[in-house]
Amino acid sequence: MKQSPTHILLINPWITDFAAYNLWVRPLGLLRIGSLLREKGVRISFIDCLDFLSKKKEYGVGKFFKTKIPKPYLFKAIPRNYCRYGITEEMLTEKLSAMERPDVIGITSGMTYWYPGLFKTIQVVKSFFKEVPVILGGIYATLCHDHAVRFSGAEFVIRGSGEFEILNIISKFSNIDMSLDSKFRTLNSELRTVYPPYPCFDLYPQLDFICISTSKGCPFQCTYCASRFLDKGFFRRDPLDVVEEIEYWTTRYNVKNIAFYDDALLIEPRTHIVPILKSVTSRGIRCNFHAPNGLHIREIDEEVADLLFCSQFKTIRLGFETSDETEQIEAGGKVTNQEFQAAVGNLRKAGYSPEEIGVYILAGIPGQRAGEVEESIAYTKEVGARRILVEYSPVPGTSLFAKATRISQFDIENEPLFHNNSILPCLWEGFTLADYKRLKDKVRKGDKI
Question: What is the pTM for the complete model shown?
């Protein structure tokens, strides 16, 4: 008698937070693993708890549907509503009720302070499928591994890129050979990182957008960023492979919006993004591109700026962080004010308006002066770009985290909830809540500082 194929349920869990917005949010790592498993003959079921918008805007982004829920006890004193974002609990239970029992459940995780939504997802799923093992991976599982092992309820908790480890675990619950053959190319033999077939976005009922990654990791070591902990090293795909994937989604599924998830999309542009965009243009591929993670400023010369504009990069975000030259060096030295001015000038010359050039300015860094943020906001406006204030979130393992633990009034070392940027965990006498509200209001209204 022929055995039925192994059945694996993959889940992108709820977000729980004071605020959340869908800026091309998709569980890219989970979808990569899904495509790899499907190539091995595994039957995949998929639930994205975040695939439910209350209001959709241009380019596929929009507001998540939200359900007000009781705040965690530790947030009782914070005068804001706390919500679960995504599908309702009833919708999740309906999906699970109609599903055949899986052999294994794989769940990814996002920001460390979203773990209540993750735990609730695991709780609901386990109530339906008792004794089915849960494999947990993703950002929270990597950065707060011990916390996840102790409290999540998952039987297996994976750190970092988990393709190989997940395959090994699944092989224990199936009769399928999970070893990787030659068609799955190893980009680096030491780090054993693979790019499987295209992520299985086709599991979504509707594709308003897809996300794509042309690389893994980042060559920089910014003091506030977790990239080097999530992916060891820095690897890039062949530009031709990237273009073929873009063409696949735009022609076969008529995708009109593609968001790049790279942390270093523009590094060494002549060997990577330049040939990608030139090929996209020469092939007549028409879609809108977006870079929500931020682009490296010093690489935006006239040629790159022109290619971004001509290939329809609609969302330009620059990772500037601060105009304080001393802080720029201490944070990793990835940009100078002169490079920032040149990049904005090149983008303006290429055809972008100031409103279309979004610039991330980081606020609430441990020990940061309110005046530094104020100066950065004024400087960005003077150069001719749109200011976007981004609140600092403490990231375990980074060099800034130790300083954050000393200055924060919260126990950020032991409680991931306190990593939440909405609570501004590293305020001090030099940067108060009143300072933040004033600066936020000025940026929102576009007033002169």
Answer: 0.92
